[in-house]
Amino acid sequence: MRQTTASTCCYCGVGCGVLIEHDGERVLDVTGDPSHPANHGKLCSKGSTLHLTGDLDARALYPELRLGKGLARARTSWDSALDHAANMFAKTIAEYGPDSVAFYISGQLLTEDYYAFNKLARALVGTNNIDSNSRLCMSSAVVGYKRSLGADAPPCSYEDIEQSDCVLIVGSNMAYAHPVLYRRLEEAKAKRPEMRIIVVDPRRTDTAELADQHLAILPGTDVALFHGILHLLLREGWIDRDFIEAHTDGFEDLKRLVRDYSPALVADLCGISVAELQDCARTIGSAPSFLSLWCMGVNQSTAGSAKNSALINLHLATGQIGKPGAGPFSLTGQPNAMGGRETGSLSNLLPGHREAGNAEHRAEVADYWGVPALPDTAGLSAIELFEAVRSCKIKALWIACTNPAQSMPDQERVHEALAGCPFVVVQEAFSTTETCHYADLLLPAASWGEKEGTVTNSERRVSHVRPAIAAPGEARPDWSITCDFARRLEKLIRPGEPSLFDFTNPAALFEEYKLLTQGRDLDLSGLSHVVLDRLGPQQWPFPAAARQGTPRLYEDGVFPTDNGRARFLAEQYQAPQEKREARFPLTLNTGRLRDHWHGMSRTGTAARLFGHVEEALLSMNGDDMRRRRLIDGQLVKVRSRRGELLLPVHKDDSLRPGQAFLPMHWGDRFLNGLGVNSLTLPAFDPISKQPELKHAGVEVEKV
Ligand code: SF4
Q: How far apart (Å, rounded) are the C-alpha atoms in residues 445 and 277?
């Protein structure tokens, strides 16, 4: 019988509601949920083809184990798989200590899955070696919000995009990466043509086509641009002195710093004209409301934290925060990167927006979990973690719902690390990912449409994700795999103690987790799966007494810092790690296409999604191609300091000379044994530890 189940799309951080049409066994169709506040019934090409991505040939269906590196994996039972994993982890911990194991998880897990993993790593194993692919995606935004505003909380709502008079979009091709939100912006602009849109992006993307002004800055020069804008805002008196005085600290230091960022200097650094810079500052300074949107172009940088803070500085200086149509609004890449940040799924965090490095926070969580203490040794972030695997400091690694062999920079080092790691567990829905190749134990996980829990989207809105059909084969929900493993492990390393993982469903995990947020900035204590069913998706904070969520933060000008005041950060512009030089004169940028998602484990199963772009192409400016005597479609070799790829070149004058672009989606399976990230570098921001995936020096030559 045909039925409909309301759930959410599993791709990007817009968090669109979907209606899944199914017969209890197969998903038959997917449409947008008109009642979901994120999308009001709209879906993009990815969301609307979710029902075409159910190819069982691509799925992991049964646990598979190998007992030696050179052997093939063989099907095994869940009991023997998890017993073996528990024995291997217990043995490693006993022999080498808790920091000899690690967990690398994903922004696509549900909140309940994340919570189970965090409790497993920190309370049971006693390590902070738990990091997530969100490190590659949002960790600079986390740092930006926390340093400037006091908490990792995007203060805006999607409605603010529609209400704003000036929208500044930086380092985000939202037409491809957040299409439904982009459509909301397009419609708002059509209704109110006086709304000004400025796009800052080295490429002239489809998003830039909507803009009144496109600033094609040189890659990585964002901090200089933001300081240059502030210099002009100050000079012209377009700042809100009352707001600065009443609600902020640190303005005098920043004023001194930006005095040196003259229009001529900034124009030169950014590769734009003084007039363009002045236009931009005038538009921002004279707008009744000013909103900024940003994504990976800002975050994936060795200066990602400074870029975030310099952008937030503009909002604090103009008082453009906490009011309709205004505020610094980071767009979250993955569907539940926000949930990961909330549950503490970066190595430096703890549940409820707490810090692993804060003794008081550790004591609060340890007390709540009923364990003597949480580990105080700093955990490893993604790049550090795989380096520790490579140097054999980490000897047992559990990877869930992510494909680091494709997505991490300097891919060959990561492959080396995985190949040499004594015990690798991969908990994954798709058996086709590059990382599965390295699994000693492959655990089949349920996927979209098959599992239940919650997700938080970019505007802090928590949705109830519901299952429509049973998972295929013996695949199980992630929370259930994690808790089952944890119960077996605790019998070995904590014998005789009551179980910490006595959960029988994801609602029970949420109930335990939400009380860890009580009284914190993200208070979720008034929410539950039942409340979400009754009220629909809600924005946090939603404390116990609340009747509805909170659309906008900081309306009272009080920030969650020690003294209630926001902070200006005064940091100099730093150039990206790899300078242009004769051997590698081009700057390689990587990014998304419209119809694919991450490493294509799901979108790669739907033929229709190759209609927009069929294959991986290297995009280059026509002048650079002429200089190298290259013609459109020709096979070329692109080389960086770390690796090389063979692929066709494509003339694309949306790029300035000196730049090249590669889509991020193609991994080993699609590029003759090498993926895009064999070119990128593992340098990372010193604070956020987010790698610089968007700026590698390369050269391109004829094959
Ligand atoms: Fe899914 Fe994002 Fe598209 Fe919405 S915009 S349908 S969440 S991919």
A: 50
